[in-house]
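Incident log, structure service

09:12 report received: a user says their structure output differs between two submissions of the same chain.
09:20 pulled the input from the user's history:
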Amino acid sequence: MTPDELKALVRTVPDFPAKGIQFRDITTLIGHGAGLKHAVRHLAERCDAAGADAIAGMEARGFIFGAAVAIELGIGFIPVRKPGKLPIETIGVDYALEYGTDRLEIDPGAIGEGHEVAIVDDLIATGGTALAAVELLRMAGARVPLAAFVIDLPDLGGADRLRGAGVAVETLMEFEGD
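09:34 re-ran on a clean worker, output below:
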């Protein structure tokens, strides 16, 4: 399936979570067997071309796509977790949200110095979470050559922010507007 065919599988839910927001719901894409398979294959091709030797995905939907891409490529998966979810000593980074802050954590032993780790997630909006993941992976010694997403919301500028941080960005589809 082409990226345009995959885009047709993404449901738009108006006025969620607030009036005026067009929520891009991937539930319909991941529930479509052929669609999920082809989305993963497209993402995997991009990660392979970037020389990734591991894939990192942010909780929660990044786990769906990231783990599947890692399996497709036969490489490891690094879960980037919310705080307090790992039973070991972690390293973490705090980052700003629209209202407040949040934190991401990883097992520092999951990454070897100089590993080429591609980030995979379902959607890039403002880029705050993805930039925090890049910072965290770099703190652990990884190089992050690529961030690959199913959906880009280009009006929110996240992909450009990642590029400004020295990370190439690949997406399967774009939706204009919020």
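09:41 both user submissions now match this output. Likely a transient worker issue. Closing.
09:42 reviewer note: The CA atoms of residues 47 and 118 lie 6 Å apart. Residues 33-49 form the longest helix (17 residues).
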